[in-house]
Each structure stands twice: as C-alpha cells, then as structure tokens.
Amino acid sequence: MCGIVGYIGSQREIKGFLIDGLRELEYRGYDSAGIAILQGSQLQICKAVGKLENLEKKCSSLVVHGFGVGIGHTRWATHGKPTELNAHPHMGEFSYVVHNGIIENFKELKEELDPSKFVSQTDTEVIVHLFERELERTSDPFQAFERTVSKLRGSFAILLITKAAPDTIFFGKESSPLIIGRDGEEIFFASSDAPLIGNAQEVYYLEDGEYGYAQKGSIRLFRGGEERVPTFQPLTLNKELAQKGGYRFFMEKEIYEQSDVIGETLMGRVKENRVEFEELDSRFFQGIESIRICACGTSYHAGLTGSYLMERLAQIPTTCEIASEFRYKEPLLRPDTLFIVISQSGETADTLEALKMAKKAGLRTLAICNVDNSSIVRLADATVLTRAGIEKGVASTKAFTTQVAVLWMLALYLGQGRLDQETLLREIDALLHLPGALKVRGELHERLKRLSKRYLHGHGFFFIGRDIFYPLALEGALKLKEISYLHAEGYPAGEMKHGPIALADPELFTIALMPRNLLYEKIKSNVEELSARDATICAISSIPFELADDFVKIEKQKHAMLEYFEMAVVLQLLAMEIAIRLGNDVDMPRNLAKSVTVE
Ligand code: F6R
C-alpha cells in the first residue's frame, strides 16, 4: 500500500532521508516511487517505476545541501497503471502533492478544472490542480489548501509543497494514517512510525479531519477552521526491532521471533489461576449474550479459531465474518452483542468500516490489534494489543500467532466464572507452555527445507484440518499461495468427500493437520480416504502415520492448542522454504501490500 514521507530542515541531506524513509515503508508493497524537493524557487523532482533502486539511480545526480522541504511517496496502483506519469508526487504548475487513500469525488472535482492540465490517470492529481485554482482565488496558500481539503471526499493523507510558500509543507488527514515527527527545528512526516524511528524524538498522530502546515520548527494544526494544539509524545520504538537481524528474510526472522514475542503477549495477563487484562474493565462485558468477530485475511483465520474457543471456553455463541462481506450484507446487529475486530495493522479499510457500523448500531466494540494508535485502536471502545512488535514481512506470521493467543486468553477471561477449576488450570498451564511450542527447532527447520523440494510442482495443495485446525489449514494455504504463487486451498477435512476428493490423484498434495489431542481418529479416516485415491499426503502430527508419503513430526504436546501453535510454525516454514526454492522474494510477494487501506 502507498507510503508517505516528508521533511523540513537543514540538518540532514533531504534526498537521503526521503529515500531511506521510503525504504522503511517498502514492506507495505508498492509499484512506483518518487520524491520532490523544494529549495526556494528551485524544485527537483524524480520518479521511477518499480523498486526504490530505480528511483535512486534516476536521482543519483540530484544533490541537495542546506535548508529545504521534501516529500516522497511509494505508490501501490489503484487508479491508473503503475507508470511514471501516475507515480507521485503529482505536479501542478508550481505545486506538488503526495497522497495515500482514495479521493472518491475526483471525477466531479475534475469537471470543475481545466482538463488540459491533467497528465495522469490518478485521483490524486485533482488535489494539486484544485489547490492552484483556489490559490488564484484567495492568493493565500494556507487558505487555498484549507479550501482544497474541505472539498475532498474519501480517504486521504496528503503532503503538499508549493513554490508559493517554499519553506512550508501543507498536510491533511482523513481515514488514512499520517504522523508528524519533530526533533528540535527539524520536522518529519510519515504514514507509519518506521521512517521516523531514529530520526524524530517525538511524534503526533494526526486525527481524522486535521490539517495544517509546518515550517522550520513550527507546526500549525487545524480542524474545522479551529486551531488546535498537537500533543506530541516521545517516540520510544527501537530501530533494532525493525531490522532483519541476520535472517534471510523478515518473514524468517518473524517466524523465529514468535517464541519470544508470545512472552510479551502473555505478560501480566496469565496469572497462576486466572487470566487478567489490565486494559479491560469486566463491567464492559456485562450482559453480553453473543460475540461477532470481524476481520480480513490472516486476521480472519485467527478470528475463526477464536470463534471455536469462545464457544467452547466462554460458552458464548460466537460467529466470525470476513469484514468485506459483513459490510454489505445488511447485518442484524443487537446491542447485547460484543463486536470484536482483529487487525495486525489497525488500518485495514474493510475492518475499520465494519467497526464503524458496529459502533453506529450501539454495540460494544473491542479491537485486537498490533499497532497502538492505529485508526482501529483509536475507534474501538476497548483494545487488547497483541504486542508482536513491528511485522515487516508482508505474509503475516507473528501477528497471527499473537492474535490467536489473545483470543484464547480472552475466551478464558470471559469463561473463567463458568469453567471448572481443573479445566481452567489445564488451559493456563498450556498457555504458559506457548513459548516452547513456538520455538523453531533446528532439525525441524532443516527437515522442512529438504522436504520443500518435493512440493514445487503438482496441480494444487489441499490443507485439511478439523475444528480449530480447519482455520489453521486455511491459514497454511493462504501462507503458501501468497508467497509461492502455487494454488492452495484450506478445507475442513470432513468436507473433502462432499466434492473436492474428486481432484485426488498423485499430483494433488494434501497437507494433513493431525493433532493427537483433538479428533485424531476422525481426521485419520479422512486422510485414509484421500490416500486410497492416491493423493500425495504430507502428514503433520506427533503420531507416525503409515499412509503418509511424507511425515513431519511435531512434539508430543499435551494440549491441542500447543499442537496448533507448533503446526502454525511448521506451515509458515514450509510455505517460506517452498517460496525460497521457487526464487520468490518472500518479504514482498507480487501484487500484495502489507496494509490494505483501500476497500
Ligand atoms: C496475509 C496477510 C493478510 C492480512 C489482511 C488483514 O499474510 O497478512 O491477509 O491478514 O490483509 O490485515 P490486518 O490484520 O492488518 O487487518
């Protein structure tokens, strides 16, 4: 998804800062990039299609010393193809803009403007021409920007620079994240924390409807015509955490990290004989009769797992829905329902909109999220943070396992009044064994590396499981397809004979999740049916399975959830090793973006 950076100051080389900042946003996915730097009346602009190296090469002759203002952008195409003309910054006659989001009324606005001025197919370009038209009318750059922003509908984070006010960056935000950072007189902008780490000392997360302008050492912030004072907070994140640390890919680092990170997720929450959430008030849950969970992608798979756990442990009827489906199905929402949204980024457009619908209908809302201060966190009534740290790999790994851990704890938190003591203690004991279950064992990784070479062809994969292992099968299939580009499907094992078994032949790879602690005999007979039809079976279990063509042995765990987490790691590693063998960039798979802030 698109990324934004901006800088005002003289302390550092602006071009270097902008490109480094964009590099920090690379993980979000992009297909073109550009920067614009203004020093007095001198403008330098540079854009390129493809990776940032292309941009760097193109602007290698561009040297900037001394004070200046600069904006940069990585674009993930929505309106118009990924071409240089469509890349940001977009130009007017003397002004330049970068934008994240979608201007929904760009066609109407364009009709008011001179069509001969437009060179791109984007919605963004309308902003810069509108600004210049308003400037002709008011001759005050801030007033012109204020009027421009007031006419825009949709979602946007905007930075605009203009020769009419060459020491200034104008900014505006609506439903798309934008952060201002500062360090003394230097001012920074970015669409997420990563480019600011190690640069800004303190940050302000803009709220929807806020806009204003920044000049050397000063920021003026407005909303609805009223001036406001931004409340900056220290930026405490550590750059180390955002780097690869010796692993081949961020995804690999993040898979290995899970065992430590989960400790953070559990910390202070799992007590000797109960689960507590400091951030939640138990009165918040009073009178709750049902739960609806809503999310997208991997977060949806965590949510679906959570729906089994809620019913089983908290004994509350629970459903889980895909946010983009929920939004338009005209759902019946009852005020005694707890609405839970799950999101790694906290910015996913469909999940955010579903949350807005639930709030509007008067439901109590709870976010399970990895990014504090994200749009979803700010909107929900209550939040439980997953504490996974920055996740850079586009394919979600540690965000997923921490989401499931939070849901498991939440199910116990809501169920602890009803569950018998023995069950509760068994669950708590299992929770405390989570770091061990998520630890990557060297020999297991080696085995999967070797095994991966046998799975590079075929006409497709079926990942099958039952109960909570069904959502895990969905997640295993998603991981594989998003980074290997091989076709994979997750399926409830018991459903195979209702149709998909027709596909069974030696070129159909079945990855069978066979936990010893949950419905082992049932899944075993489902796998036997597939084996009898000559499907190639890769079984993941702690119990050797003689009909398997390949067998991945996990530890003999005493709780199904521990098997679940260990198998999650196996599936992540298997997908990664297959994708690496196929020569793919697993951190930045084609066509994907880390944070999906458009519908
Ligand atoms: C897959 C993946 C996506 C996200 C989905 C929702 O590996 O990462 O499917 O899970 O785009 O994103 P969040 O969790 O940020 O709302």
- Total domain modules: 3
> How much helical structure, as a percent, in the residues?
25-40%
Counting DSSP E segments of at least 2 residues, the number of strands comes to 25
Q: How would you characterize the largest beta sheet? A: 8 strands, antiparallel
- Note the gap between the termini: 12 Å
Continuous helix count: 17
Helix-strand category: alpha/beta
CATH class of the largest domain, anyone? Alpha Beta
Largest sheet: spatial strand order: 3-2-4-1-10-9-11-15
Which molecules are bound in this entry? fructose -6-phosphate
What does this structure look like?
The protein has 599 residues and is an alpha/beta fold. The chain folds into three domains: 3-243, Aminohydrolase, N-terminal nucleophile (Ntn) domain (Glutamine Phosphoribosylpyrophosphate, subunit 1, domain 1, 4-Layer Sandwich); 247-431, Glucose-6-phosphate isomerase like protein, domain 1 (Rossmann fold, 3-Layer(aba) Sandwich); 440-599, 3-Layer(aba) Sandwich (Rossmann fold). It has 17 helices and 25 strands. Strands 3-2-4-1-10-9-11-15 form an eight-stranded antiparallel β-sheet, with helices on one face. It starts with a strand and ends in an 18-residue tail after the last helix. The mean pLDDT is 93. Fructose -6-phosphate is lined by residues 296-299, 343-345, 348, 351, 395-396, 478, 482, 595-596. Residues 296-299, 343-345, 348, 351, 395-396, 478, 482, 595-596 line the site of fructose -6-phosphate.
